[in-house]
Every structure is written in structure tokens, then in C-alpha cells.
Amino acid sequence: xxxxxxxxxxxxxxxxxxxxxxxxxxxxxxxxxxxxxxxxxxxxxxxxxxxxxxxxxxxxxxxxxxxxxxxxxxxxxxxxxxxxxxxxxxxxxxxxxxxxxxxxxxxx
Length: 108
Hints:
- It is built from three helices and five strands.
- The protein is 30% helix and 26% strand.
- The radius of gyration is 23 Å and the shape is elongated.
- This is DUF2187 domain-containing protein.
């Protein structure tokens, strides 16, 4: 891939010649003269330890980048747009009683 084709926040397919054994998808965070810093967003399970060691970031030469497959982009967009619902948990009677007894002990 050429430098002109790489845009910040775009998702690209990449391979690393040293750190990771399988191709992966990354989001372009920063562009350098001959490479780009990627946030690793989709990778093979075999590389899970290496990705953790890299803190999900890697610098890759432009020659090792290519456009991400459209089917993978759809999967990632679906995950990014999934709804997460957060509900407040109401305390149970036992938890309320424990909280009251803790407050009483502190006031004495």
C-alpha cells in the first residue's frame, strides 16, 4: 500500500514479519514516513499473547498493509454498533442490612 492510500482512522489488513505470525486488522492511529501505527482490532487466537505484550499497538511498514476485506469490515462495524445495556442493581435486604451495620459501627 502507498502512503497516500493510508488515512487516519481507516481499517487495514496487515502482517508483521516479526511480532505476529498471522495477518490481522488494525485501525490507523498515526502515519510516519515509511510506516503507520495501528491499533490491533482483530487477530488470530494464536497471536493473543503477542498482541497483549504489544498493548494492542504495532508499527507496520506500508509494504505490509493492504485494504481490509469488506466482509471483515461489516463484522467489525456490527460489533462496534452493538447495544450494551447497563442497569442499576438494586440492593437486596441482606446488602442493605450490612450497609446499615457498617454505618452504625463507623458512627460509634
